[in-house]
Amino acid sequence: MSTLTLINGQPASTISIADRGFAYGQGVFETIQVRCGRRLLWDAHLARLLDGCGRLAIPTDGVAEQLERDWSSLAVARDGVLKLTVTRGAGGRGYAVTEAMAPSRILRFTPAPVSTLQQGEPDSVRLRWCSTRLARQPLLAGIKHLNRLEQVLARAEWQDPAIREGLVCDTDGWVVEGTMSNLFFVRDGRLCTPDLSYCGVSGIIRNWILQAASAADVVCEVGHYRPPQVEQAAEIFICNSLIDILPVGRLGARSYPVGAVTRLMQQLLQQEYQLC
After folding, report:
1. Catalytic site residue 83?
2. Same domain for 151 and 126
3. Residues 31, 60, 110, 132: which is the catalytic one?
4. pLDDT over threshold 70, residue 188
5. CA–CA separation, 19 vs 102, rounded Å?
6. Which residue of the set 144, 165, 179, 235 is catalytic?
7. From 165, 177, 193, 262, active-site residue
8. Per-residue confidence (pLDDT) for residue 2, from 0 to 100
9. Alpha carbons 27 and 179: distance in angstroms, whole number
10. Which of 21, 72, 187, 223 could form a disulfide with 27 if both were Cys (CB 3.0 to 4.6 A apart)?
11. Which of 71, 91, 113 is the last residue of a domain?
């Protein structure tokens, strides 16, 4: 089964060069794990996408219904990855929107065996620090917009396949996230994660973990941290919608055990998936 792509509800593989997502990055996207045709945590993904559209001045009237029809047209019934992109649409030259235009919808399903990939992950992974810094821009903080150049530059800093992910700070030196993941660590008995008020992606799994941990009586803290505070943690893990929760065994020169809080969150997440 090959990759399936729909653009505005029709099978296609190209988009207009006048599309504002291509020209200016005016768009948002979601990357969703699919198991046996089920879009995991779909409601949360849709809510973040619509919020991002609203913040980027992309009209959302009817978009949710159109996306449901598009998904039904794909008729997917297996494991894989759904990448969903919505842009402001195709229009004239210049930053200002001076004409009527409809948002563009792009659905791309890749039949990757997600569960097999996850089973192939080591028990823990190795991280490094990146020198690339994220700009502080609260207007864009949290949403998954199309400008990923900072992440591209950060990921280009290493080629060693033994390093699974790189952690990035903002231009003020505060830890934010990984190049493609959110960060959690346990310190002084608290489950900590960086504040994302100024930059970074408010991840679906990150938000789920904060709610699930609180319900499980795990003390959570969202705050501002420097790299040494992360390095002094008792346990560390990273997360996103495809890798789920990955324990960190090494960050720079330091090693870490796979801790009880990490294991608890992994267990609770798999239980949640059974309900999706």
Report:
1. no
2. yes
3. 31
4. yes
5. 10
6. 144
7. 177
8. 77
9. 19
10. 21
11. 113
Q: Residue 117 has what pLDDT?
A: 44
pLDDT at 96 over 50: yes
Domain boundary among 113, 137, 156: 113
In the numeric block, which tokens belong to residue 61? 């009237």
pTM above 0.90, yes or no: yes
How many Cβ atoms are within 10 Å of 116's Cβ, its own excluded? 9
Measured CA to CA, the distance from residue 143 to residue 272 in angstroms comes to: 23
Q: How far is it, in rounded angstroms, from Cα 35 to Cα 274?
A: 10
Is the domain of 55 the same as that of 9? Answer: yes
Count up the domains in the chain and report the number.
2
The structure tokens 């290493």 sit at: 158
Active site residue 177: yes
